[in-house]
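hi! just following up on the protien thing from before. the input was this:
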Amino acid sequence: MNEQLKNLKDTKEQRIFNDLQNKLDYMKKNYPSLNIIAIYLQGSQNYELDDEYSDIDTIAICLPTLDDLITKSNKESNVYIMNDNSHIEVKDIRLLKTLLYKQNPKYLELLETKYALYLTAEGNMLKNAIDKYKNEYLNTSFQLVRAMIHMFNNKLDLSYKERPGNMNEFQKFKLDVKSLSHFYRIGYMLEKLVNGKKINNLFVLPQKQREFILNVKRGKHIPCKQERDNFQEYINKLVNNYIKENEKLNHSSISKETTDKLKKELDNIIKYAIYHEFVETFNDIYYPNSNIITVSNALMQTQEKLLKK
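and the predicted 3d structure came back as:
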């Protein structure tokens, strides 16, 4: 059993970690070619906006194999659907630098969630790399504010659209109440962000706002169209004023130095995995019944050299 799953006393915490492990087991069994090294919870549980009907959404990070690097031009970026219809979004580690640089709140959330599993040495290397630089990625910038205001307005648009995934609730409420709840959640986050709060302090909102959002999500209270329009106008005005008053704020808060350092560390993780793959293949071909080359020692020496660079 993964060390992170031991000694869990909280029922919710154990349920989430067990679900993460189940998703990893599913991917390993059904897509063994994907070298997943980390999986993160993404969604309502991180915001304390979950209920008994909430899905457990996840994002997994995978490493390319040597064959992938040689034969594939595209980087892995797909959503896999399990038998119970739950979703696992899988991203190639090479995409992570860009996703974090753009400060997409969906991926910034991964830097703060307490629900994550890291597999093998490569997974631990990824955790260490992210921990080094996450504070800078969580800084407020025009880029972050603009990404969030785009999501805010888009969620309201989505709440008016019937789609294959929301047909039941749309027929019941004449709205996509889940998208509407996200509209209010992001709006409240933006309100506090432009007033000086950092985004890592905003994933969990005050209880009163969480209760309001949950009631919207459950369809227990749906603000009328005029209320929705007024809230949208209020948040957009706040953001426009913020941008005008902070013209000198960097478009992106992420320095080139940080971006280059993170890229180097992510590249080193890929190198480490490829060296691992190469040594194991070399052993299997040339020394199938011998311990002349010890994989663990070779990997340890490689890791030490990579981390010293």
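The chain has 13 helices and five strands.
The mean pLDDT is 87.
cheers
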